[in-house]
Every structure is written in C-alpha cells, then in structure tokens.
Amino acid sequence: MSKKIVDNKSFxxxxxxxxxxxxYMSLSGKYDDSAYLLYAPLNKRSMLCSEEQINAWRSQLNAxxxxxxxxxxxxxxxxxxxxxxxFVCSPRDVYAMTLLPNNICNFSCSYCYAAKGHGSxxxxxxxxxxxxxxxxDPDRISRRDLHISFGGGGEPLLSWDRMxxxxxxxxxxxxxxxxKVHFSFASNGSxxxxxxxxxxxxxxxxxxxxxxxxxxxxxRQRRNYKRVCQTLDMLLDNDxxxxxxxxxxxxxxxxxxEMVEQVHRRFPxxxxxxxxxxxDGQLFSTPDELRSFxxxxxxxxxxxxxxxxxxxxxxxxxxxxxNLGMIKSRACAGGFDVNxxxxxxxxxxxxxxQETLYDDFIYGHVRDGRVEYDEQKFKALIDYSSNSRDDCHxxxxxxxxxxxxxxxxxxxSREMLDEMCRFQREFSxxxxxxxFDDE
Length: 439
Ligand code: SF4
Ligand code: SF4
Fold this sequence. Notes:
14 strands; 3-stranded antiparallel β-sheet; TIM Barrel; 18 helices; alpha/beta; about 40% helix
C-alpha cells in the first residue's frame, strides 16, 4: 500500500502528528488501512482513531485552531511540555560531564568505536582537579544536581586511582559548595576488587557493564566471557545491580530472546538490559542490507522485551526506546566529554586524535590549570543536529529524536540515514502501539 499524501499542517503546527499505521506496519496485517495513531509527544499521549476522525479533527483545527471537544483540547493541545528539557546552549551551563580517564584498554572488541585511539595515556590529577573546579562551581551554575560519568576511550577501571581521586575530590567540593554529584561508569567488566566494590557503594555509583551475554557471542565479539561473569557475580553478591549494555550485531540480532533467557537463568538478580544495535558505517554495504538488519533487530528486540516482561523482573530497553520518554528539541543535549589528553569533545564517540572526526568534535581544552573552550564552535555543533531539516519537520518523532546526531550524520551516507529514519519510525510506532495491546 503506497503512502497517501495528506495535508497535516494544521496538526503539526500544534505539535500533533497523525500517523497512518499501515504506512509503516502494513506487513503486520493487524490494522486496516484507515487506522491512525494520533500522537501528541509534548503531552505524552497518543490515541488510536480512524481516518474519518482525523479528517473531522483536521476541519475543526483549520476552522478555529481547537477541537470542538474540550476534553480533547485538554488532553492533546493544552499544557504541552517545554521543548527544551535540560538542554544546554553553552559549556557554561553543562550539568553532565563525561570523563575518559585513559585511552588504555585490555580488550579488543570487534566493534570498538575507540580502537583507533587506544594507547597508554591517562588523564593527570591536575587535569581532573582543574576540570572539577570548573564543573562544581557555584559561580558557574545555579542548579545543584550534577552528573559525572566515567567512560571510554579505554577501560576506565584500569585507571582506578584516577577515578577514585575524581570521586573523592568532586564529593568534597560538592559538599563544600552545596551540590549533589551523581556518579556512573561504563566498564568492560574485566576489572573488579573488594576495594572497588566498597568505593562504588560509598559513592553510590551507577554501574554499567558492557557484556554480550551469550558465551559464544561474547567470546567472538569481546572475548573474556568467564572473567566478566566473575565480575558480575561479585557485583551482584555485593548488592550492586549493574545495567548490562549489549551490542546487537548480525551475529546476535536474532538471539535477543536467548540473551534474556540466559540472564534469567545465570544472573537472576539482574534487572536492566539495554540492547543497542551496532553503530558502524562500514558494516552494511547497501541500504537493503541495513534495512534487513534493522527489521530483524526490531522484531527480536520486542520479542526479548516481552519475554523479560513475562519474567516480571527484566527490563529490556535501548536508546531508541528510551528516547520515546524524552522531549528533544535537538538530537544532542550538548556534550562535555574530557579525554585523557584534556581535550573537550562534544561526543564520547570521538575521543582520540587518530579519529578523522576529531577536529570537528573538539571544542575546548583543559590545560595549564584552565578550562578553555570555543563557545561558537559548541553552538555550531549543537545547531548542526537541530531538527530543522525538511524531513524532520513533518516526522512524528521530531520531538523524541531531535533530528539525528552529528556523529551518525557524518558516519553514514544519506541513503543509509534514510533507512535509519524509516527504522526509527517503525520501531517507535510499535512501542507507541503496544500501550494499547492490553486495552
Ligand atoms: S572494552 Fe570498550 S574500549 Fe575496550 S575494546 Fe571493547 S569497546 Fe573498545
Ligand atoms: S527519525 Fe529521521 S526524519 Fe524523524 S526526526 Fe529523526 S532524523 Fe528527523
């Protein structure tokens, strides 16, 4: 069934998006061609309706700018959420920072986005102190809850002394100036000790472990299956409940249910799994290959999510799924990611001078006791991901997706990006429709 061209301006102008379901899901056979979802992202509501209702509502909006039913006005038009929830427009306003304490890694994962930059560099204590003095500063920022995450570049726990120094210093400074700092980190799960466990508990650090769950897949993509299992056992025995981040590639795309079963059997205390598909502009040679992979990803993701739900304890999510709960006026919230050399990047995906996009993404430095940044470059970088593109304007995901991020934009061809948009709409529509399954 081809897509009908209809004029939805009167809806879109009011941040309402009529979506004819079979434009995306005709293969499911579940909906007839006149079935619509009316999506109101800024009211966090959606409703199933017919084409006839959409046509009647379009006439009402064209005539008076309102619906004739006050209840509908209240639910869909009034009290829309702010379109800028926590987005920063200058490095002066950042409240979330990522520290990449080294570029050292003891793994060599097949899909590692940071592999080119691996080496032996660690962030100095002086750099950490300088950037924390800047970050936790009552003269810079008025909001009092701040977020620091430790990530890679490399494996952050291989620089445990730097991480610990940063958490101690940040906490002392936060206490002194009336801030609350929330910590998190992402690790490959190879490094753990009683001391690390104790400090993670002391500083209430949110723990993320990258792990591909199935032994054969982990050992092909990341290796070290047994070692990571030991780390998870130790964390769980000490009541630290990590989120597991698994990368979905062609190797495990159809095995997502098996992954949930394995977690249920082997690590019954685990609660949160994120299954994100691999970001690699070179992996698929044609848009059709990418489409087929993303369709498989969608099908098996929702089966795995339903299975986790049926166990009553396991939440399977992903960045794209999580985005449906967010309101975004642009794709990138505005990153402040400091690498081992003290350079400040817009995105932790681009953290090493060996990467071709490095000069594009670096907008500042921590050096000689000072934090310096190029405000104009920061602004240009965040504006680049603005959802003002023509395609985004009419897209029902514009307030959840924000227009796609600059890293994706630079990593994929236009045809591939179009496939990713198509996938994102199908994937999100399924999530929006699932809420009606039990009604
Ligand atoms: S553990 Fe992380 S940084 Fe290390 S090779 Fe794997 S993906 Fe790359
Ligand atoms: S899914 Fe694509 S078209 Fe829609 S808002 Fe995102 S980038 Fe724009």
